[in-house]
């Protein structure tokens, strides 16, 4: 879930990639004026404030200033209704999607389109839930309940980024054990053809290699 990643500062922003030595600049790719932290990318950048300015009315009434996105989310949970929180989360996703569209495709949506896409996503989600509501009882027992990973089982997560201007890709890998503790991590920049699919494949490869080095099968 994107909100979980946002609150844990795990998005591939320029600032986070710069800290991992994957990119050379930490400036926001949109405004080119401030470091692109998670909070800047999704809340405080002027281009993003334009989106929030035409979004939820409660956000239009006053500027919410917090140090990080987790604090902002906690505050909004107390102030917004459940449906408003859903729209907020959908808008956050669309803002991040717009940012990536600029970086990878050189396309940038106007604020109204971002809000429209977010509300459309929420509407489609509600319709899908309403459509499947009648069959939930029939399939409930066929869906396994969530359970922790088995003992001695490890999980590898990876992410990738592309710097088209400098023809570089980068991958980050984190390996955790069955209790959620971090066992190992790495970041690996590489001068390569700047293709998003190639970057993802490179991330998988680095994850497999790291697992092999740790003796994890």
Automatic annotation (TrEMBL):
InterPro entries: RNase_H-like_EbsB-rel, RVT-Znf
Domain of life: Eukaryota
UniProt name for this protein: Reverse transcriptase zinc-binding domain-containing protein
Limits of the Reverse transcriptase zinc-binding domain: 2-52
One Pfam match: zf-RVT
Source organism: Carya illinoinensis (Pecan)
